[in-house]
């Protein structure tokens, strides 16, 4: 390799690494025959893989060559060098694009460019979260302006009416393998200084800016694709933020001469919608007055039926409020939730949109989420699979029978891989703590709170997710003395690592984060509770691979799916979770542990008491004893039986390969088939 330490220091960002590489090292590599042979082989393999036309989609569905599916999402998480994501929605969207590329699915992505992205998190001495925004260094990021202006910025491609003015839009291109992702930007010539900043930050709490961003994403995204002469056959909206994409297409169909009913039918016939939100308060809702202000120019365009469009977004006719999810559901012919449980909750939530149907007949199905295995699987586990499952195992990663061979991996090899990924995590935590202390930003106590005293031999539990009340990050602290006994046991200690961000405007969740952080400062915990700040994709990969137990404690039924536990299980990390979201579909009794049951007829206080008692019991009676039960060589054979069960059962069922194939075959192909029949 060129410089592995530099590769690590740059967060695995190839553009940044080459910029920071000493020229002498590059000249040396250019004269090294062994390096040049490796380089030529890698480039040849990449070029061959990108241009070849022999993929699952073209082999299985050759009649649909030349078709295009547009996938709209407010965020995409592809790599930590492009921090335009906040959490699970972006991770899911990024994994879907990557798997579409692997399978040869003709997908094009559409999102927004946020030059300041989501915030970087710093935790002060008192445990209070501080948000730091830094402007993206476009020179050190693998993105390209579709049409470059001076200084490398993007030039205008299209325009939309926003309020009473014209807003000009450009786009950046991100190549995700064979898939192209276009990120719409407003920092282009012709816009005011204020409008240039319109998409500067992701998920602003300010309603006006949020509405404007969603107009840019939906209406602007359609017009940018058309400016690039991309004419999708199927349009897929990922969450309610994308609903204006349907509105603009209805307007254009009306402008072409169709009646409103015909235009709506045409758009519905080519639209898929995915909802991820299991609670009413999580859906974007805007007062009519706000829409009228910022869509005033749009309402004047040919083909606009303002009252009819507003009514589609109005679940309750007595309220002058526009619900983005309601509009998206009414303008899509295929809609889905993201787990089996979530589908049941979603059909109940939106039953009022189909009052003439029984709740179970509401036309919302489910496609359970999955994760992109090459992104999240540890190299140590992949090497085991190469040896024991066969070199081509990745091409069949959704085949359940393939993973039966995991049973043939010797315990000694499997345990060695688990120990190695854990050591990598603890090393990175220690390095972060050292860097924070050496920079002068952290005092010694803060460095210890970041995990500087963590031990690679102790049972390590991870609580890693967005900090918010319904996730119950403080459930472990219901009985502090009982927790301290677990943590301080000299023969079988437990250490717990927390990581996650609170939304900048969510003061209540910030207080939960603060109380969690302050526990890491408590000397009575012996330095065995840590909080890792600024959780990003790079640290996420280390955490899902490196902890021993993955803790998930949401209030029922508020977990739509969740994907972090899937990633953990695929790496041999055992989940310890409330049975909500994806878990009831994947839990088989031997691949982790379920906290209590699925019943939800409890007050929050009763639920907390019941689940905390079950959590402590599982740790004390089953998990801790099983982890520390070793043979004379230090190998925990019965623990590894569960590790194998997790890897074997979760990997095929919750791979993004299975998920994308399901979207293709149950959502996209029926639409493409109907369009072919009409032609």
Task: Describe the protein in words.
It is a single chain. The protein is of the alpha/beta class and 679 residues long. It folds into 3 domains: 4-51, no CATH class; 67-116 and 142-369 and 661-678, 3-Layer(aba) Sandwich (Rossmann fold), CATH 3.40.50; 374-654, Rossmann fold (3-Layer(aba) Sandwich). Helix content is 44%, strand content 14%. The chain has 27 helices and 20 strands. The strands form 4 sheets. Strands 1, 2, 5, 6, 7, 8, 9, 10, 13 and 14 form a 10-stranded mixed β-sheet that branches. Strands 17-16-15-18-19-20 form a 6-stranded parallel β-sheet, with helices on both faces. Strands 3-4 form a two-stranded antiparallel ribbon. Strand 7 (165-176) and strand 8 (179-185) form a beta hairpin. Helix 8 (207-227) packs across helix 9. The longest helix has 28 residues, at 411-438. The chain is globular and about 80 Å long. The N and C termini lie far apart (53 Å). The mean pLDDT is 94.
């Amino acid at each position: 390799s060129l410089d592995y330490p530099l590769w690590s220091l740059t967060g695995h960002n190839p553009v940044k690494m080459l910029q920071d590489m000493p020229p002498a090292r590059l000249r040396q590599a250019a004269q090294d025959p062994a390096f040049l042979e490796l380089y030529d082989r890698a480039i040849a393999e990449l070029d061959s893989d990108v241009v070849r036309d022999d993929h699952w989609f073209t082999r299985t569905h050759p009649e649909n060559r030349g078709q295009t599916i547009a996938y709209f999402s407010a965020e995409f998480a592809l790599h930590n060098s492009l921090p335009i994501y906040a959490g699970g929605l972006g991770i899911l969207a990024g994994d879907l694009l990557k798997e579409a590329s692997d399978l040869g699915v003709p997908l094009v992505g559409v999102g927004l460019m946020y030059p300041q992205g989501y915030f970087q998190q710093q935790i002060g001495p008192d445990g209070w979260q501080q948000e730091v925004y830094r402007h993206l260094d476009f020179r050190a990021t693998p993105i390209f302006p579709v049409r470059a202006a001076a200084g490398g910025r993007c030039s205008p491609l299209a325009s939309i009416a926003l309020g009473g003015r014209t807003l000009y839009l450009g786009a950046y291109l991100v190549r995700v393998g064979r898939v192209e992702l276009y990120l719409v930007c407003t920092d282009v010539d012709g816009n005011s200084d204020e409008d240039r900043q319109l998409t500067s930050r992701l998920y602003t709490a300010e309603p006006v800016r949020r509405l404007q961003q969603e107009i840019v994403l939906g209406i602007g995204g359609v017009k940018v694709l058309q400016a690039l002469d991309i004419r999708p056959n199927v349009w897929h909206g990922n969450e309610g933020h994308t609903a204006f994409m349907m509105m603009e297409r209805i307007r254009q169909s009306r402008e072409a001469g169709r009646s409103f009913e015909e235009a709506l039918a045409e758009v519905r016939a080519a639209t898929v919608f995915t909802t991820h939100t299991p609670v009413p308060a999580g859906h974007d809702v805007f007062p009519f007055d706000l829409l009228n202000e910022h869509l005033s120019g749009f309402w004047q365009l040919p083909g606009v039926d303002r009252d009819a469009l507003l009514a589609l977004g109005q679940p309750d006719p007595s309220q002058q409020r526009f619900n983005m999810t309601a509009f998206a559901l009414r303008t899509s012919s295929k809609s889905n939730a993201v787990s089996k449980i979530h589908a049941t909750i979603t059909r109940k939530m939106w039953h009022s949109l189909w009052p003439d149907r029984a709740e179970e007949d509401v036309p919302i199905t489910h496609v359970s989420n999955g994760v992109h295995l090459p992104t999240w699987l540890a190299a140590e586990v992949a090497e085991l699979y190469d040896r024991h499952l066969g070199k081509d195992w990745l091409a069949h990663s959704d085949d359940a029978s393939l993973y039966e061979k995991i049973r043939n991996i010797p315990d000694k090899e499997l345990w060695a891989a688990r120990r190695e990924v854990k050591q990598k995590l603890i090393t990175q935590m220690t390095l972060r703590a050292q860097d924070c202390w050496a920079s002068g930003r952290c005092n010694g106590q803060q460095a210890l709170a970041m995990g500087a005293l963590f031990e690679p031999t102790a049972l390590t539990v991870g609580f890693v997710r967005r900090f918010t009340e319904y996730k119950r990050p403080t459930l472990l602290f219901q009985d502090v003395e009982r927790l301290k006994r677990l943590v301080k046991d000299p023969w079988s200690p437990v250490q717990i690592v927390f990581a996650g961000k609170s939304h900048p405007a969510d003061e209540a969740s910030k207080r939960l984060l603060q109380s969690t952080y302050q526990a890491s400062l408590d000397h009575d915990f012996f330095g065995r509770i840590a909080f890792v700040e600024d959780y990003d994709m790079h640290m996420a990969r280390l955490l899902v691979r490196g902890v021993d137990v993955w803790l998930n404690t949401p209030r029922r039924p508020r977990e739509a799916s969740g994907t972090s536990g899937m990633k953990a299980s695929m790496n041999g990390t055992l989940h310890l979770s409330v049975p909500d979201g994806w878990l009831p579909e994947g839990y088989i009794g031997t691949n982790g542990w379920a906290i209590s049951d699925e019943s939800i007829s409890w007050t929050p206080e009763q639920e907390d008491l019941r689940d905390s008692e079950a959590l402590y019991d599982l740790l004390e009676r089953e998990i801790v004893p099983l982890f520390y039960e070793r043979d004379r060589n230090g190998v925990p054979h019965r623990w590894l039986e569960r590790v194998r069960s997790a890897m074997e059962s979760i990997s095929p069922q919750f791979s993004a390969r299975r998920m994308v194939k399901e979207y293709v075959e149950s959502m996209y192909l029926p639409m493409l088939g109907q369009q072919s029949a009409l032609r």
